[in-house]
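Listing S7. Sequence submitted for prediction.
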Amino acid sequence: MEGIFTISTNMMQTTAIAIIMLYVGKFLRRKVNFFDRFCIPAPVIGGFLFAIIHLILKSTGAATFEMDTTLKDPFMMVFFTSIGIGANLETLKKGGKGFVIFLAVSVVLVFFQNILGMGLAKLIGQNSLLGLVTGSITMVGGHGTAGAWGPELEKMGLPAGEVIALAAATFGVIMGSLIGGPIGSARIRKHNLKPNPDLLIEKDEEVGNVVVEKHAPLTVDDFLKVFALIFISVGLGAILKKFLYDNVTLLGSPLNLPEYVASMIFAAIYVNTIGKRDGWEINQRANDICGSMGLNIFLSIALITLDLTQLKAVAGPMLIILFAQTIFMALFAYFVTFKVMGSDYDAAVLSGGICGFGMGATYNALANMDALTENYGPAPKAYFILPMVGAFAIDIINVLIITMFAQITF
C-alpha cells in the first residue's frame, strides 16, 4: 500500500518477535480456558494474534511489517533433522506396523481430498483445477507443494493459480492448527485414554510406589554432538537433493526431494550405524530439546509473518470447497484415523496430528501433538509414525496422485 508506514525487521529482530509471541501464547494458554482445554499450540496462539494485529494495521493503513525470515528455514531444518536423529531401528520395531497402517490412512485421505475438491468444483460449476488446488496440493501438500504447483496450474488454465494455491494453503494451516487439538483431546477425554506405559522410556529404579528417573546431567558436549550431526546432515542433504534432481526423474519430471527429508535420511543412517558405537552416541534428551526449540521458533516465525490479507482471494466457490475440506478432515480424523490406528491413546494423538499435516504441514501436526502430550502425557509411537509419514513418504505419493488427478479435466 503506497504511503503506509513500514516497519522493517532484520532476521534477529524477527526471531526475537517470534519468541516473544511464543511466550505470549504460552501465557494466554494458561489464562484462557478455551486454549488450554482444546490444546491449541502456544505458537499458534501467539503467532495468529500477531498476524491479526498486522492485518488490522495493514487494512486500516496504519502500518505494515516487512520481516526478514532468513532464520525460519534453519530452525525448520533443526527440527526435522532432530526427528531423523530420533528414528532408531528399536523404535521402528515398536511402530513399524503402525507406520504402514498410518501411511495407508494418509493415502486414502489424499484421494478423498482430491475427489471432494474436484467433485464440489463440478457441482458448483467451476474449473476442475480449482477443485484440485483445494485438494491434496494445498491440504496434505501445504505451502511447499502449493508453491511448486501454482505456476503449473496457471499453464494448465487456472487464472492466478499460484496466488490461489498459496491462499488455500494458508487457510489450511490455520484450520489444521485449530481443529487438531480439540479433536485429539475430545477422543482422549471421551474414552479416558492414558499413555501406553510399554512405550515410555525405561526407568532406572523404583522406590516404593514412586518411580524415579535417573539421568546424567546434560553437558555442552551433548548439545555440540547434536548440532554437529544436524549441520553435517543438512550439508550432505543439500548435496543429495541436487544429485537426485539432476539425475533422477519421476513421471518425466526431476525428483525434487525436500532438503529436510534428505537431512533426515543422513541423520537416521548415522544414529543406526556409527551412532551405536561407544563415544559416538547422540544424547536423545539433548536432541529432543534442540528439536523442540527448532519447532517452536520456526512455527512462531512462520505464523507471525503470515499475511492474512491473502485470504481475500479465498472467496465464493473456493471458500465453499475449503470449508468442506475442513469438515471432512475433522470427521476423517475423529472417526477413521482414531478407529483404524487402534482406538488407543496414541491413536487419539495421531487423530489430532493428522489434522496438522492433512491441512498444511508436518510442523503443524507436531505442534498439535505437542499440545496434546503436554496435557495428557507422552506418545512416542505417534511421534515416530507421523513425522516419517508426513515429512517423507506421503510427499512422494502425493505427487504421483496429484499428477494422476491433473489429467482429469472438466
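Caption to Listing S7: primary sequence and predicted C-alpha cells for the chain studied. The first strand starts at residue 6 and ends at 9. The radius of gyration is 21 Å.
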